[in-house]
Structure formats: C-alpha cells, structure tokens
C-alpha cells in the first residue's frame, strides 16, 4: 500500500482513543450529518486540516464552520444534529 505524501499530519488520536485519518474525512460533496460534521471539526482541531482548507474543501462559510465548532465544543455531537440546532443555538 502506498501513502500519498501530504503536508501536515496523516493521523490524529482522539481523546476517546479512536484514530482519525485523512481517509476518514467525508467526501467534499456529502450529505451533512452530525458524525461527518464532527469528523471535520475534529480534523481541524487536531491538525489534519487547517480551518481554511476545511472551509474551501467543503464549501462552507466561515460562520457555518465556526458555528459547528462552537456547538460541538460546548454541547457535543448532539448539538450538530439538525433536529437539535434550535435547542443549542446561542441567542
């Protein structure tokens, strides 16, 4: 198996002991569910992607990504679910 050379990290170990790799990241044209949003936020937080790379790669706005990151950091994965967004949204 050959690994493509990429700048930066290839893997990150998350606090729960799981490993996040570049291959675990969702495809750019994806249906956004909470687990995929969390994977992108974790990838940025642990250095697999830069914030700007994530925004460009997934076609997000800065505000959208920042809202995901803030909700995930404050309330966990459930805050990224569409059905829970109103509950966790900041006034």
Account of the 3D structure:
The chain is mainly alpha-helical and 91 residues long. The protein has a domain of 42 residues. 42% of the residues lie in helices and 7% in strands. The chain is built from four helices and two strands, in the order ββαααα. It has a two-stranded antiparallel sheet. It starts with 10 loop residues before the first strand and ends with a helix. It comes from Paracoccus pantotrophus. InterPro entries: DUF1153, Trp_repressor/repl_initiator, WH-like_DNA-bd_sf. This is DUF1153 domain-containing protein.
The main pleated sheet reads as: 2 strands, antiparallel
Low-confidence stretches: none
Mean pLDDT value? 86
End-to-end distance, in Å?
50 Å
What portion of the residues fall into strands of 2 or more residues?
A: 5-15%
SSE succession? EEHHHH
Helix content: 40-55%
Count of helical regions: 4
Overall shape: globular
Secondary-structure-derived class: mainly alpha
Strands, total number: 2
Task: Give the neighbour order of strands across the main sheet.
Answer: 1-2
Give Rg in angstroms: 13 Å
Pfam families: DUF1153
GO molecular function, one term: sequence-specific DNA binding
Organism: Paracoccus pantotrophus (Thiosphaera pantotropha)
InterPro entries: DUF1153, Trp_repressor/repl_initiator, WH-like_DNA-bd_sf
